[in-house]
């Protein structure tokens, strides 16, 4: 199979099949809710939708999102932007992706989902050798992402971990159910504004469950604390009340200059579509 | 889970409370931005919405030789964009159930109370499942004028699930949940 065909296959799989760790977290959330209550009905509907999409090989959400490819740099020569674009065009033609890419100035549609800067492609040195990962992130969830600058006097958040926690919880309260909750948070403490959004989004690649927990004990404690706090707010799936607003929290940090202290929160909806594929080795 | 079937009975709809899970069967019509604008501009809506349901949805439907249409995806779209039009639509059409995502404003809630109508929150993103709940496409209006995503589709659905988020008594789950979570946040952030 050629590389274009393999990547087109990866796109189709990612669009129609939710990762097992996310599905497991949704099932665990369902078990916590009162049977027949509104939160349980929402979660049951989501899980049935996941099964229906996987069975039919159809997109599990109609917003097939922004495509972001993370490519191990040893593949730079083989998995070029041109190859990836060919695969995206092919997958679009086959119905794995909706026409979902619009020129921001003219308003015209790029019907094959390819343009300057679309899809987003990162060549990185931290992935397993020979691997490509694809993430589809929907607009509704992207709209709920936020960046804070500490100190934040309106929130009463200072330049310490207590202040960081306040910012993250504020983002959850502001998002309510509108990002198609239950969601997953990727957070970056510090960094500059642009890198921090990238790092925050990269945290969404870490699987849910213990294996994705932060290696740093302080951050691990913060991840668990925020998850517990957020789920105690009672917002629930789709904002209709319930015990689960977040399925997971993943936090990283980057150094900062003394003058800035950013807290950046990337919000991902329940339709957290990501998949790694090994192309070589 | 409360089961409701088209035509939706006013008494039954008025008895629903915010937080009730519902399963809908029978006719449901789609209509979103262009549909609402068309109606507000005095356009003639051909279908009778009395005791019916309006679904804020831009489905993906593909022409399918023998049976007419196949629905590929039919998840809800965000409802707030229809706020300016919905109270008048509710008053004049006699619609009983509005289905969408994210809820609507106080003026719409008041119109629902006056006329006996509820807002059902469908699950955002569940396009594949809602497409599977459409058993038959009974027809479509305004297809040429608006295109497939904005047309008024007539779906016959079975076991279409959602949650009453705004009822005919003036209650909105969204407002309640938002207020409660803000209060809890204030307490947590003091600790
Ligand atoms: S936020 Fe996620 S689940 Fe909701 S419509 Fe967008 S992509 Fe789909």
Brief descriptors of the model:
heterodimer; A: 281 residues; alpha/beta; Hypothetical Protein Ychn, Chain: A; four-stranded mixed β-sheet; globular; B: 191 residues; fumarase; five-stranded mixed β-barrel; 9 strands; binds iron/sulfur cluster
For the biggest sheet of chain A, the summary is: 4 strands, mixed
What is bound: which ligands? iron/sulfur cluster
- As a percent range, the share of strand residues of chain A is 15-25%
CA-atom Rg of chain B in angstroms: 17 Å
**Main sheet overview of chain B:** 5 strands, mixed, barrel
Name of the CATH first level of chain B: Alpha Beta
Supply the number of structural domains of chain B.
1
Describe the structure.
Chain A is α/β, with parallel strands linked by helices. Chain A has two domains: 3-14 and 59-137, Hypothetical Protein Ychn, Chain: A, CATH 3.40.1260; 140-271, no CATH class. Chain A has helices at 3-16, 20-32, 38-56, 81-93, 139-142, 161-175, 193-202, 217-231; strands at residues 66-72, 120-124, 131-137, 146-149, 183-190, 246-254, 262-268, 273-278. A four-stranded mixed β-sheet of chain A has the order 2-1-3-8. In chain A, strands 4-7-5-6 form a four-stranded mixed β-sheet. In chain A, helix 1 crosses helix 4 (81-93), helix 2 (20-32) packs antiparallel against helix 3 and helix 6 (161-175) runs parallel beside helix 8. The longest helix of chain A is centred in the first third of the chain and has 19 residues, at 38-56. Chain A starts with a helix and ends with a strand. The mean pLDDT of chain A is 96. Chain B has one domain: Alpha-Beta Barrel (fumarase). The mean pLDDT of chain B is 94. Chain B is globular and about 65 Å long. With 191 residues, chain B is of the alpha/beta class. Chain B is built from seven helices and nine strands, in the order E-H-E-H-E-E-E-H-E-H-E-H-E-H-E-H. In chain B, helix 2 links the parallel strand 2 and strand 3. Chain B starts with a strand and ends with a helix. At the A-B interface, helix 3 and helix 6 of A face helix 5, strand 9 and helix 7 of B. The site of iron/sulfur cluster has 11 residues of chain A, from helix 5.
